[in-house]
Design a protein that fits this description.
This protein is mainly alpha-helical. Helices cover 52% and strands 5% of the residues. Strand 3 and strand 4 form a beta hairpin. It is found in: Cytoplasm.
């Protein structure tokens, strides 16, 4: 078996057996191709069946000088899964990454925005902005409102369909990692701006593949992830905000603000689409001063000292 055949079979397995999204599959394959490129540069044509621990160690040593510990850990995990698949299919007997340890990672706390930051970003959107006679200002406002009020990943936002909107019931249907579906509550303000955009959207000549996609560009095509980043970057620059802001920052802010206002961690987990509540628990580490306030307010033995 050569690398091309192994990757083709593995992609099929990830899609059919694991139910992973196209983006997730591409990420797995990208890491395998990094290993292949390393082999080619070192004139090593060894197959995925014959590659040994020593060769993989050389590859890991090389990327350790180029990538962050977090990126290294992701690649090691991805390659370990790939070779486990080859073992499962009886193409090889051992995993060349069995003796390779991932770098230790500290828990990285996500960046968040204050409510004032978010209000300022939304207020900075020019609702009169048009391109080719299509009002994209209202679209941009609906995008930011949806990112923040529903806590979506950027891919979940760009994939959001009109048929996923259940406004009468107060929910939207979201397809998350692994194509797993969840229902997320949506507020009246966000619904208002989506409905405004839907009226504008009717005047666009929409591509056949995007008829049901909610957020489009002026050509009637589905928006790219890069376009969402660009919209946010321009707003951040416009208000002079000295923070690194990405679409995921709104998702983190969504979870943090819910927790700060007393939301149940399990409910936040469900809305974010986290498979494990351990992932959601990271938000309990963000604002310790808020936790002290909660303790003072609700615990029978408060920290307030009596005179």
């Amino acid at each position: 078996m050569n690398w091309s055949n192994a990757i083709t079979d593995y992609k099929h397995y990830l899609k059919i057996e694991r139910g992973l999204s196209v983006n997730s599959i591409d990420n797995y394959v990208y890491d395998i191709k990094r290993l292949i490129l390393f082999l080619e540069k070192n004139s090593n044509s060894i197959s995925p069946i014959k590659i040994d621990n020593e060769t993989v160690q050389q590859f890991i040593y090389k990327i350790s000088k180029e990538l962050s510990p977090r990126s290294q850990a992701r690649i090691i995990s991805g390659l370990r899964n790939f070779f486990n698949y080859l073992i499962f299919e009886n193409y090889r007997a051992t995993n060349p990454l069995d003796l390779i340890e991932s770098p230790r990672l500290g828990r990285k706390l996500p960046d968040t925005l204050s409510i004032e930051d978010i209000d300022n970003l939304i207020d900075a959107i020019d609702l009169n902005y048009q391109y080719r006679n299509i009002n994209l200002g209202h679209r941009n406002k609906a995008i930011i409102e949806t990112l923040y009020s529903c806590g979506l990943r950027v891919s979940e936002l760009t994939d959001l369909k009109i048929s996923d909107l259940f406004f009468d019931e107060g929910f939207i249907k979201v397809r998350g990692k692994g194509n797993k579906e969840r229902f997320v509550p949506i507020g009246d303000t966000t619904k208002k701006y989506i409905l405004i955009w839907k009226d504008i959207r009717k005047h666009i000549d929409i591509d056949a593949d995007a008829k049901d996609i909610l957020f489009l560009n002026y050509k009637g095509h589905k928006l790219t992830r890069a376009m969402i980043f660009t919209i946010i970057k321009q707003l951040v620059k416009k208000i002079g905000l000295k923070k690194t802001v990405s679409p995921h920052t709104f998702r983190h802010s969504f979870a943090t603000h819910l927790l700060e206002n007393g939301a149940d961690l399990k409910a936040i987990q469900m809305m974010l689409g986290h498979e494990s509540i351990t992932t959601t628990e990271i938000y309990t580490h963000i604002d310790r001063s808020h936790l002290n306030t909660v303790l003072n307010k609700f615990h029978p033995r408060k920290f307030v000292t009596k005179e």
